[in-house]
Amino acid sequence: MEGERGCVFCDIVAGKAEAYKIYEDELSICILDVHPYTKGHCLVIAKRHVQWWHELSDEENASLFKVAKVVANRMMDKFEPDFIFLYARGRRIPPPSFIDSDLQR
Ligand SMILES: [Zn+2]
């Protein structure tokens, strides 16, 4: 998959940059955040680089939530937190189409 130049997430998707991959499907990938602010803080990122999340296809948006749910269920089984929250972001990092899921204890 051809990524956006200078985008670390595209490099991760292409296998050119290091990341701790937790799970992926055909359209999305879940990695640990390099600057976690909670235990288990990870990012679910669409593999295709777009500027805004609403530019993703319905399938890509569905994939983001599917991958986030798989990871959340695994975290629930493994760490038994009270809950796991999820939020969407859009501005801090160049490919703004991603969702973070955080493990709260
Ligand atoms: Zn990118």
Give a quick summary of the entry:
Helices cover 27% and strands 27% of the residues. The protein has 105 residues and is an alpha+beta fold.
Describe the structure.
A hairpin with a 3-residue loop joins β1 (21-24) and β2. This protein has 105 residues and is of the alpha+beta class. Helix content is 27%, strand content 27%. The model has no long low-confidence stretch (mean pLDDT 82). The chain is globular, with a radius of gyration of 13 Å. It is built from two helices and five strands, in the order αβββαββ. The longest helix has 22 residues, at 58-79. Strands 1-2-3-5-4 form a five-stranded antiparallel beta sheet, with helices on one face. The protein has helices at residues 8-13, 58-79, and strands at residues 21-24, 28-32, 42-46, 83-89, 98-104. Bound molecules: zinc ion. Zinc ion is lined by residues 3-4, 7, 9-10, 49, 95.
Give me the secondary-structure topology.
Elements lengths: L7 H6 L7 E4 L3 E5 L9 E5 L11 H22 L3 E7 L8 E7 L1
Antiparallel strand pairs: 1-2, 2-3, 3-5, 4-5
The structure holds zinc ion.
Zinc ion (ZN) binds next to helix 1.
List its salient traits.
105 residues; alpha+beta; HIT family, subunit A; 5-stranded antiparallel sheet; 2 helices; 27% strand; binds zinc ion
Question: What top-tier CATH class fits best?
Answer: Alpha Beta
Cα-based radius of gyration, to the nearest Å: 13 Å
Uncertain spans, ≥5 residues at pLDDT below 50? none
Biggest sheet record: 5 strands, antiparallel
Which small-molecule species are bound to the chains here?
Answer: zinc ion
Q: Tell me the number of strands.
A: 5
Count of alpha and pi helical runs: 2
N- to C-terminal distance: 37 Å
Kindly report the oligomeric state of this protein: single chain
Order of strands across the widest beta sheet? 1-2-3-5-4
Q: What would you give as the CATH superfamily?
A: HIT-like
Q: Based on CA inertia axes, which overall geometry fits?
A: globular
Mean pLDDT: 82
Query: Structural class of the helix and strand makeup?
Result: alpha+beta
Provide the β-strand percentage band: 25-35%
In total, the number of domains comes to: 1
